[in-house]
Write a structure and sequence with these properties.
Elements: H1 19-35, E1 39-40, E2 46-48, H2 49-56, H3 61-66, E3 68-71, E4 77-80, H4 85-94, E5 104-113, E6 125-134, H5 139-156, E7 161-167, H6 171-186, H7 194-202, H8 213-219, H9 231-246, E8 252-253, E9 265-273, E10 281-287, H10 291-294, E11 302-308, H11 309-319, E12 331-335, H12 338-353, E13 358-360, H13 367-376, E14 381-385, H14 387-392, E15 394-399, E16 405-409, H15 413-435
Parallel strand pairs: 1-5, 7-8, 12-13, 12-14
Antiparallel strand pairs: 2-4, 3-4, 5-6, 6-11, 7-9, 9-10, 10-11, 14-15, 15-16
Bound molecules: adenosine-5'-triphosphate and magnesium ion (MG).
The site of adenosine-5'-triphosphate has 20 residues, from strand 6, strand 10, strand 11 and helix 11.
Length: about 425
């Protein structure tokens, strides 16, 4: 039987009672990105499969095991995006954005799809915030992008996060390194997992990112790329570190970081949280100087990062961080009888035009049930309308927090509600200052 009452394994709903957390986090991300000059770009959830094969890489876990790929009714091979960089680069090239001023700075928020084993911090639909900085070769660009990631994490309130950086060099320095790696792993070929045995000749660096415990164990003593960097890559890495020092951004060099996607070159980095167990990388990124040419553009040095928003939510949860919740309803107008209901409809419309969050009864409930509802949805104020109120054109505005009543006239309600909301906010502020 089709499971129509259950979400697909590895997917989550974000319910109305929680969505304020997502809105807060996403707003902080976009606001912070804007401080660095990054504008949002929105690209499709699916692309031609080749877009990902070409960029993420044929021998990566993502392409080999994790993609949601299918033929559409027109016989095209389509893949739900496992990440956004590939699609963004495709869009940048297709729309000629590299012909405009460089560096081009774009950011995104969106769902990603990977067929993985679901567990804490590992989902089949998850969300990423990320940035791409296209056409910036200098080491200061690496530092700027890392600084942006750091500031996003700070602005959201993520504590206890550490930055690890590495350089995985350019195709030139990798030649020597890959030979050294092959030599190392060939000696242990029988212990490698089947996938890694296959990777050994084609792309030995992928073995370093394998999740199987045996391969992980073998990787412990494998040669590290940082010992094989060419002079240019070595200097670039030195300068990146100097810029990070200059911005007082703390980091450790972790020569074991290689990242799971093939397009990276030179600087790679991760932000790791001490708060959420095994799936602890909340942000991963780096340079991809070869990717744009690989995707059919002119060679254009570029870099970026992506953060897993669900993992950030887990950190906030673990830290017990209270995120600001905006009032869902400023005023609930309870109406008794048809004439009052008509008046309530008119008042609500006017107040909403003035920007207030206002609700009234739309179920023909009795007064008691209406007040109960107003209380449950957390209305800041209520106003009861009956025949008397319609006749006198006056009613009592009730502060639901204090129970205080204040007589208002039904004309000009917006001004009076505005004053009442502000008075309440000031009193709350004064209270909290006295408590402190
Ligand atoms: P991991 O090593 O944890 O599998 P990755 O190297 O595959 O991560 P990237 O492709 O670099 O991750 O994606 C960037 C970020 O997206 C990760 O650091 C993580 O925060 C988040 N992320 C990746 N895969 C998932 C997933 N399946 N569920 C939730 N978040 C994820
Ligand atoms: Mg992964």
């Amino acid at each position: 039987m089709a499971e129509i009452n259950r979400a697909v394994k590895g997917t989550n709903d974000i319910l109305p009672s929680d969505v304020y957390k997502w809105q807060f986090v996403e707003n902080k991300m976009l606001e912070t990105a804007a401080l660095f000059g990054f504008s949002e770009i929105r690209v499709p959830v699916f692309e031609h499969t080749e877009v990902f094969k070409r960029s993420v890489g044929d021998t990566t876990d993502v392409v080999q095991k994790e993609m949601y790929t299918f033929d559409d009714k027109g016989g095209r091979s389509i893949t739900l995006r496992p990440e956004l960089t590939a699609g963004v680069v495709r869009s940048v090239l297709e729309n000629g954005l590299t012909n405009g001023p460089l560096p081009l700075k774009v950011c995104y928020i969106g769902g990603c799809y990977r067929y993985e084993k679901p567990q804490a911090g590992r989902l089949r639909e998850f969300h990423q915030f990320g940035v791409e900085c296209v056409g910036a070769a200098a080491p200061s660009a690496d530092a700027e992008v890392i600084a942006l990631a750091k500031q996003v994490l700070d602005n959201i309130g993520i504590q206890k996060v550490s930055l690890e950086i590495n350089s995985i060099g350019c195709p030139e320095c990798r030649k020597k390194y890959q030979e050294a790696l092959k030599e190392y792993f060939r000696k242990n070929i029988d212990t490698l997992c089947a996938t890694c045995r296959d990777r050994l000749e084609r792309n030995p660096m992928r073995i370093l990112d394998c999740k199987s415990p045996v391969c992980k164990g073998l990787c412990e003593n494998a040669p590290v790329i940082i010992d094989y960097l060419c002079e240019d890559c070595e200097n670039h890495f030195k300068e990146v570190k100097k810029h990070l020092d200059s911005a007082e951004i703390k980091y450790t060099v972790n020569p074991k970081i290689v990242r799971g996607l093939d397009y990276y070159t030179r600087t790679v980095f991760e932000f790791v949280s001490g708060d959420i167990g095994a799936q602890s990388t909340v942000c991963g990124g780096g340079r991809y100087d070869g990717l744009i040419a690989q995707m059919g553009g002119q060679p254009t040095a570029s870099l970026g990062f992506a953060m897993g928003i669900e993992r950030l939510m887990m950190v906030l949860e673990a830290q017990k961080t209270e995120l600001p919740k905006r009032a869902g309803c400023d005023l609930y107008i309870a109406a008794m009888g048809n004439n009052a209901s008509l008046k309530a409809t008119a008042l609500c419309n006017d107040l909403r035009t003035d920007g207030f969050k206002v609700q009234t009864d739309i179920c023909n409930k009795g007064l008691k049930a209406q007040m109960k509802y107003a209380d449950k949805i957390g209305a800041g104020f209520t106003l009861v309308l009956g025949d008397n109120e319609l006749e006198s054109n006056k009613a009592n505005l009730k502060n639901m927090q204090t129970g205080e009543l204040c007589e208002v006239t039904l004309d000009n309600l917006a001004d009076q509600l505005f004053s009442a909301i502000n008075k309440n906010a000031l009193e709350n502020l004064a209270d909290s200052i006295i408590k402190e």
